[in-house]
Amino acid sequence: MTLEDPCLAAPDRAAAQSLIDDTRSGLASVGLLGDKTDAELRAAGYFWINDRIGGFRHYVNWSYTNLFIGVGTVEMDPNAIESLVVREVGGGRLRVVAAMYVLNAGRTMSSVPYIAGELTTWHDHTNLCWGIGEWGTPVVVGLTRAPGDCGGRGFYSRTPPMLHVWMDMTGNACGPFAGVDEGGVMCEHDH
Q1: SS3 annotation, 28-43
Q2: What whole-number distance in Å separates Cα of residue 169 and Cα of residue 56?
Q3: What would the DSSP string read from start to end of 68-115?
Q4: Are 63 and 30 in contact (CB under 8 A)?
Q5: Structure letter (DSSP) for residue 131
Q6: Using an 8 Å Cβ cutoff, are 106 and 160 in contact?
Q7: Disulfide: which of 25, 70, 79, 175 matches 106 by Cβ 3.0-4.6 Å?
């Protein structure tokens, strides 16, 4: 389903386009569109979580998210985007291809905001083990061996729901809110 899909109701289409436009404006206002280096992303407050998923990486601004603790009231703020998805483009350059909004800790898939129905494909992660990385920020250190069991490798925390908003659709035939997994851009989440 894309914004042009005739099955998408006009109000949902308008809400989806507004989210894309607001997100692009928010990223542009702080110079986060286009190619960056890891150092430039860190200078903007975004730190790599040590993942490489189908050629993509996730960077998180930990001052904008309360991923592990249940405090905070800001959600879906295009001026405080919790995470960026970047594609490695060579020569140490990383292209910002999507923003990712992360709801507050304690939120579940049953409490995600309604934006554009099935077009906005929220997801969460139930199998990540976390540790502290080189910059003193959380990083993914592996996957659980069993539900909630990191086997002594870091700590387990289920993520709250999150939503990708794509700025660069190159290689993405799945739509403006598709997720990424081990195979790259994915059209549906099965978490």
Answers
A1: HHCCCCEEECHHHHHH
A2: 13
A3: TSS-----S-TTS--EEEEEEEETTEEEEEEEEEEPPTT--GGGPPPS
A4: no
A5: E
A6: yes
A7: 70
| pLDDT, tens digit (0-9, with 9 covering 90-100), for 103-147 | 988 889 999 999 998 888 899 989 999 999 998 889 999 999 999
Give the whole-angstrom CA distance, residue 93 versus residue 34. Answer: 10
Q: How far apart are CA 154 and CA 129, in angstroms?
A: 6
Global pTM value: 0.89
CA atoms 20, 26, 29, 32: torsion sign: negative
76-103, pLDDT tens digit by residue?
999 999 999 999 998 989 999 999 999 9
3-state secondary structure of 4: coil
Return the CA Rg of the chain: 16
Helix (H) or strand (E) holding 27: helix 10-29
Q: What is the pLDDT of residue 176?
A: 86
- Stretch (H or E) spanning 14: helix 10-29
